[in-house]
Amino acid sequence: MTDHYAVIGNPISHSKSPLIHTEFAKQTGQDIDYIAREIPLDDLIAGLEQLQAEGFKGINITVPFKEQVWQYVKNKSAHAERAGAVNTLIFNDDGTLYGDNTDGIGLCRDLVDNHQVELAGKRLLLLGAGGAARGVIEPLLSYKLSELVIANRTASKAEELADLFSEFGTIKGGGFNDIKGQFDVIINATAASLQGEVPPLPENILNQNSSCYDMMYSNTDTAFIIWAKQQGAAKSIDGLGMLVEQAAEAFSIWRGVKPNTKSVIDLTRSHVI
Ligand code: ATR
């Protein structure tokens, strides 16, 4: 019997997740289908109950519901608990829910495995202190960075995140004005790219081997990728690989089999308009 999965969000028509998971299913021989469903902004809980009543086995959650699902689901992985957001949900047969968050693992796999960006011992700058930034902090710190600096337009939010994750590594928070020195890796987790903007960053914060990563992706270079290239970054990477890798981890949580991502990243890239 075919097992049903879905991604929920609002809006959702642009989602590449059905394409990605359908490819994973073909590749691994898993008998599943996967749809995108838009949930009204003010009706998340009814939407979740409806999916459960329809017999769905699990769902992915995207903007703007990740934090709300985190609040609603009591039973979560320790990592999802700290991330403050849930992007992967299991509907258990006994009616209970289990929440996880695969965004951070997805980012790290794309950086380290797909793009050979070393993290251990490196100094890393994370731009932004919203949900997207918070979700990746603990997985990044697990690579034993020398230091993680979080910089945000609203400095106090970056300082709060640094406090929250201080037990996991050397971490500091502040405003863009507080950025000092050079970084091996810079990750953009701000929503500035959505508006075609780049946070106001000091000059000369990259060295000749630095890598820059934008968690956003587009069919043309994002504003942050353009900035990274202008600054001479050795690698400038957008977030499409992270999207596919977080999906692969969710698929693996649900189905117990880890798909290959390389060909699916290429296929997804060809569908970005
Ligand atoms: P998400 O879940 O995508 O992280 P969010 O929680 O609304 O969304 O956070 C958006 C992040 O992008 C925040 O860090 C925000 O900075 P503030 O905390 O100061 O609001 C940042 N951001 C949004 N637009 C920005 C811009 N034009 N320049 C710099 N930072 C921006």
Summarize the structure.
The protein is an alpha/beta fold and 273 residues long. The chain contains ten helices and eleven strands.
Description:
With 273 residues, this protein is an alpha/beta fold. Strand 6 (123-127), helix 6 (131-141) and strand 7 (147-151) form a beta-alpha-beta unit. 37% of the residues lie in helices and 22% in strands. The chain has two domains: 3-100 and 241-270, Rossmann fold (3-Layer(aba) Sandwich), CATH 3.40.50.10860; 104-238, NAD(P)-binding Rossmann-like Domain (Rossmann fold), CATH 3.40.50.720. It binds 2'-monophosphoadenosine-5'-diphosphate. Residues 128-133, 152-154, 157, 190-192, 195, 197, 199 line the site of 2'-monophosphoadenosine-5'-diphosphate.
